[in-house]
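Hi L.,

As promised, CzcB-like barrel-sandwich hybrid domain-containing protein:
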Amino acid sequence: MKRRFKSKILILIIILIVAIAFIKIKNRNMNDNSQIMTENVKESSLVLKYDVQGLIESEKIVKVFSNNIAVVKKVNFREGQEVKKGEVLVELEENMTDSEANIKKAKLAYDNLKKEYESSKKLYNLGAISKNVLESAKMQYDNSIIDLNLAKSRYKKFDSEIKSPISGVVIETNADDNYTIDNRTPLFKIADTENLQVILEVSNSMAKNIKLADSVSITSDSLNQGTILKGTVEKISKSSFKSRFSNENITRIIVKLDNYATLKTGDQVEASIIYKNIENKIIIPFQYIVNENNKTVVYVLENGLVLKKEIVLGASDGINYEVTSGLNKDELMLYNPNGKYKVGDKIK
């Protein structure tokens, strides 16, 4: 009896194991079907853009010189200060200029030679000197007239006050009180704050895809939260430069904005350059794309049957891809990771 009882228990255990295994297999199949991911092929848009950094800079930097050598009496503006057009940047000690000294010297020579010539004419009329002596005196007098006129033409009025030719910000100062200035060196450099531009740094590999008039969106910590400024690419440099933000070689892109809001020179900005806008084309997510045997394919479902279609890809933003051929609108794509489904499989 005990032996029969043990046999019945063993048979029940085996039946239970088989039943559990069957249920697991059934549940797994159900889960597999429940995890099927599909998506209809549709036409949409794809915006291709580059996200880069840049700075706000003045469109024009004006250098201010003195027209004479002089001693500085007082400097009224320093680096970083704002200045308005016509304000006095620096005051100079009164001083006779070189051109004024040259005029004075030429006028003195002219006066002396004029007297000598008039005297020579009288002496010649009296027969006291020869005609050659008279002509020599006249030549010297004529030359003094030329020298005086030349000195006058080179005259530079001494300006004791040097004024700013524009409104802007002083970005460089090369003068100080009691400092003797050199008229060959700019006393000030002033950035024009009324005319700004955005200088973007774009890697050379990206720059080849950017065109004049491409749309640009600008954001910055210097703007009110949520503010996005719009502009266009105005100029693309033809030379390569070293980046101010990294060791990369870059191309400088100049962007003009419709308005600059609260931006000012020196502000750092983030920019999105839209270099291509694809509209009404078949666009699919990258997860449906499979590379098999050097071919690009997409699995589709047709009446519950798994099929495979070879496709040709176009532009991409790294997440979505344009399909230029191989897929038709409204086809049903099948997500097929790791080749889970084979051509000919039926999926309910």
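The CA atoms of residues 313 and 323 lie 5 Å apart.

Thanks again for sending the construct details.

K.
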